[in-house]
Amino acid sequence: MQSYDVVVIGAGAAGMMCAIEAGKRGRSVLVLDHAAKPGEKIRISGGGRCNFTNIHTSPKNFLSGNPHFCISALSRYTQRDFIALVERHGIAYHEKTLGQLFCDGSARQIIDMLVSEIQDRGAELAVSTEVRDVSRTAEGFTLSLSSGTVACQSLVVACGGKSIPKMGATGFGYELATQFGLAVVETRPALVPLTFDARTLERLAPLAGNAVDAEVGCGKTRFSEAMLFTHRGLSGPSILQISSYWREGDEIRIAMLPGMDVAELLRAARRVNGRQAVQTVLANHLPKRLAQAVAERTGIDGNLADLTDVQMKNVDAAVNDWRIKPAGSEGYRTAEVTLGGVDTNGLDQKTMQAKSVPGLFFIGEVVDVTGWLGGYNFQWAWSSGWVAGQAV
Ligand code: FDA
């Protein structure tokens, strides 16, 4: 039986970072994955360019049952550390928007960088390898794999969340946590488009393809980014962001011209030309079909000269205080991440080690720490992988 100091299950962002760091410390490391290639989610991330971190990363960009849990890892291995690694490998990058850093070339460069670092540190990478069983021994753990049996002192669970099952996401990490007596916070799809009931969709579907810069809120949380009408409902960055905070039964509030007083806009337009239609004025600021839909929804068919103050306020509300109740989300099929996961109460925030099972570590998305859209989830994978790499 082959024996290692460290076995990492999952050659994704977190697992590879952990393997590199453990290798640097002279630990013998096996990182294994059931997929045929490492880092498949990195490959498809950021539209193929990988939004690998965010220069503004701070603990407030994360959701967790314990919002303080991520502070230690994020401060020990920061976005600047990962940027330095990217620069050492000569990978060109740019800031797209809101601090989001993307490769100029391809996400493949990030995978190549990680794989070459793994090789330089002498760690082994085994793909197309299934884990059939994991058991605890006096010395550590024994894993029954499709390729044989291996033993290790430290076992790192880095198998990610449930999103995109088509790419091999399994929820196996949660099963392992449960097997070893750790609590798992209920999981749900996050950073995911929202869907609507048939009646609402009838109204929304003709708008599919239109996009606006919107402010979308749920409860006390708000995001100002693009919003996209789709055939199934609403999507785009602002909707994906709010989906992490939305729960069934909640309404979301949307401002499609945030910061603009639409009633005043209509009054000003009336002073210039009272014979214009409402939708004509709105179409100067919104896509034409959307402007038309707003006018129809408020039931106004006269021109500006005929509008009462109340009607102007109604138009303002239809544009900037649109309240709508999503029926659900597109689910794990398209969700970028999984909310919830291994309960942070059971983990040491400095090492990611299970408090009740010495030698067992959980890192990356499988843990109940979920970032906003914009490179934060990879930064959590790098940071949590790095701290575990110092401790295994
Ligand atoms: P990750 O999912 O990367 O890796 C887990 C690994 O474990 C996989 O290789 C999987 O095959 C393996 N595995 C699973 N079960 C196993 C089992 N039973 N046995 C063996 N191996 C197993 N984030 C971001 O910050 N910027 C971005 O641009 C994007 N873009 C993006 C696009 C899309 C389409 C998605 C779906 C997601 C993103 N994300 C993102 C989120 C980001 O991809 C995610 O948060 C990280 O990949 C999480 O890293 P992990 O290493 O924890 O899991």
TrEMBL record:
A family per Pfam: HI0933_like
UniProt KW Flavoprotein keyword: yes
Signal peptide range: none
Cofactor: FAD
Alphabetical keyword list: FAD, Flavoprotein
Domain RsdA/BaiN/AoA(So)-like insert: 188-337
Ranges where the RsdA/BaiN/AoA(So)-like Rossmann fold-like domain occurs: 5-390
Annotated transmembrane regions: none
PANTHER family linked: OS12G0638800 PROTEIN
Protein name (database record): NAD(P)/FAD-dependent oxidoreductase
Natural source organism: Mesorhizobium caraganae
Lineage, opening ranks: Bacteria, Pseudomonadati, Pseudomonadota, Alphaproteobacteria, Hyphomicrobiales
